Amino acid sequence: MLLKSKAIRPIKSDIDSVCIRCLLRLTRNNVPRKHFKSSSPQNGAITSNSHLGKLLRREYFSANSSLGLSGTQFREPVLSHGSAGSRDAMLSGNATPMLGSQPLSGLTNDASEPPHRRRKRLKAEANGEVPLPLDASSRLSTLSSTMPAASLRRLFTTCLSLSKPRLSFLIVLTTATAYSLYPVPALLLPATTASPSLSALTLVFLTAGTSLCCASANALNMLLEPKFDAQMSRTRNRPLVRGLIGKKGALIFASVAGVLGVGSLWFGVNPTTAFLGGLNIAIYAGVYTPMKRISVLNTWIGALVGGIPPLMGWAAAAGQSATGAGDWRELLFSEGSIGGWLLAGLLFAWQFPHFNSLSWPIREEYRKAGYRMLVWTNSRMNGRVALRYAILCFPICVGLWWFQITDQGFLVTSSVINGWMVKEAWKFWRKEGHKGSARGLFWASVWHLPVVMVLAMLHKKGLWEGIWKRVNGEKEDDLWPDEEEAFDVSQNSQPRLHLTRALASPSN
């Protein structure tokens, strides 16, 4: 029995310094199988083979986060939402190894969660303070970390993560919506050449240029604050924080995207739209980003940035039917520009219920990172502001109908989605963000913007009347008077022109 005890002792004393494969090989080959089969009641150190196997797999390997991870993933541990994300924390067992946003199978153990953390987690879930899902940039950073370091796929995915694709998509959607809502006569006229129409090529330049401007602004935003992003669960998975790209590379990407974006808008749309795109980059990166650590007014500046893209879309469409010089005064401050300003106001108002609810679950992280946000400086006012601007969406939608941008149906359909967001904003204010009210308002705001934009396009003034006339074969009567007269004159003058040419022919 003395020999048996000596054979087991080295395994227990050095268990923390032996890797998994070596330890299993040691237990299988170096230790005789009969030592584990024969158990003696006089020596409690000898255990069965099955019990030792369970002990090794459950107790030892639960703290060894390198199991199941490839070499690349182990060198660059995946940062999860709400976790520390450091290699030391993962190796010491203080953090659960994560793959993306899901724990690795076989490594989680509910019994290993400390009691105080479990109580805190259950309390947070009961109050509705569950962290919101990871954004697209965090998911793309996780995907990029699994790719080869020198591959083009990794570079493309990292640059896409820098651009915040989900936010950029919403901005492009609002820009395209404003472009399509610009009133153009005879929208569905079969003889489309007889009336002016919006150019599809201009729309391509508009969406591409707006996307590139958004990518440039978002990349500059990440470039200026990686130190503070690392302190927050919402932003610590960004590519600059994780080291997927250097500051020089991010600056090159932001510069190239900004130049190409503004250039596309200048040559493919008009100078006014290009100026607005460049102005948005400057305000977002040069004013909004540093102001987040100075004053709570940064939220209003950020909302102003969000309201500029609809003006860009409206100015792009107005430039195609401008009757004067087509400068910024005519495109932005004429009588026909009211629709663009209403859409800009809608985007400005929408951002307060959206951001105020988004920032509530991580208000303490904002405070510790030094960001001056209303959610922790004055939480009661944070709810009032969200409710106030949610209610403001009602008169803005009414204004779109009043000024003949949309039809009467938009009043009904938009009121439903506006009422839903106001209801959630009311709960958010009354409950001060607790009991799931912040999460409810966040998801209401996420759905509100694309739904209202799509409804506005479906209820564009004259759209359904044109479809009805086209289906019934009725004659379109919404040509511009000047163009109709010019068309009649050109038709009536053609026979006289042929007669004149015939009389003047030398052969006759």
Automatic annotation (TrEMBL):
E.C. no: 2.5.1.-
Biological process according to GO: heme A biosynthetic process
Biased composition (Polar residues): 102-111
GO molecular function terms noted in the UniProt entry: protoheme IX farnesyltransferase activity
Enzyme class, spelled out: transferase
Keywords: Heme biosynthesis, Membrane, Mitochondrion, Transferase, Transit peptide, Transmembrane, Transmembrane helix
Membrane topology: Multi-pass membrane protein
Region (Disordered): 79-126
Presence of the UniProt keyword ATP-binding in the record: no
Matches recorded under PROSITE patterns: UBIA
Annotated Gene Ontology cellular component terms: mitochondrial membrane
Transmembrane regions: 167-188, 200-224, 245-267, 273-290, 297-318, 338-358, 386-405, 440-458
Family: Belongs to the ubiA prenyltransferase family.
NCBIfam families found in the cross-reference section: cyoE_ctaB
Protein name: Protoheme IX farnesyltransferase, mitochondrial
